Amino acid sequence: MSEKHLHIISFNIPYPPDYGGVIDVYYKIRALYNLNVKIHLHCFEYGRMDTGPLKQLCHTIYLYKRKTGWKSALSYNPYIVRSRQSEELIQNLLKDNYPILFEGLHSCIYLDDKRLKTRKKIYRESNIEHRYYFNLFKIEPGLFRKMYFLSEAVKLYFYQKILKHADKMLVVSEDDTNYLKSKFKADKVFYLPSFHSNDDVNILPGRGSYVLYHGNLSVPENHYACAYLIKNVFAGTDIPFIIAGRNPSSKLVDLVSGKDNIKLIPNPEEENMNELITNAHVHLLFTFQSTGLKLKLINSLYRGRFHVVNSNMLAGTGLEDQCMVAEDPETVIRILKEFFSKDFTEEMIEFRKRKLMKHYNNSLNAEKLVSIIF
After folding, report:
1. How many whole angstroms separate alpha carbon 330 and alpha carbon 232?
2. Which one of 21, 127, 234, 311 has the lowest number of neighbouring Cβ atoms within 10 Å?
3. Which band of pLDDT confidence, cut at 50, 70 and 90, is reported for residue 1?
4. Count of domains in the chain?
5. Taking the CA of residue 273 as centre, how many other CA atoms within 13 Å lie in the half-sphere pointing to its CB?
């Protein structure tokens, strides 16, 4: 049998796998490596230099500088796309005839390039980007960043037409799949959930002593959701809460200050974060963005007990039977109090395992990916 080779164009170096988009890229590479696919990885580097275990997982790795600055910002193309233009990249792609996987709309500037007309081109969706940026526009308080998010949202809306040049589209949620099927040929669009760090379900039965909210707190979406929960949920009860995540702002620190039932843990190490997830009694996860797949939900379902979420967190996941949905603070507080009188049982763990290992199984999804591409 001939070897399978695949180019992957990543918007950033996918190591360490510590936030949504790069988590999917890294664990996808790992799963494909286990199926003997030879990966030729192309990364636009900014803020990261370490390729770590990618050196062992990939056949070749190419790094390119992002073209940040005002010239990219003034382009008709979205900034996240225009800043990832590289003639060196296209020349490296032209060295062979292997299929190309474009990670996110960020990496698609060469999707319609005539030099790649005969190549198999696969688009990997992680968000409906114009919706994502429009929601950032709505919650951003600063005028300059607000105008940037709005400008980018408009550019991304018109730029998405480039996806008609993709032979296949791999989409992380059922809702986003339906959206792209409505815009492009439906037989080109495939639902393929995000890859993640979990190979098996590891949940402790019994009870924990606190509610956990976690995420990258420097991301505007997460900052906004966390501040909302502190003001409207955490401060209105004596239930113990822990907030854990990267780079919390001084505003979040101030909001927590003086509240005895709330503990903020900034920048926990991976091992510590996993312990927090495993030992929590309830996971409270809110988002005001319904696009994409929330990987922190998948991670906490693999490791954690009860989950209280809003409907945006579940959009397109098919995981409604694994969580309790609450849209307002009063309902959240009521459900949290109910859960603290219950144990998480072995039967609940088995039910969770059957669901996740069927639909969010890295090995099975990697096999599906290989069958779509090759």
Report:
1. 9
2. 311
3. low
4. 2
5. 17
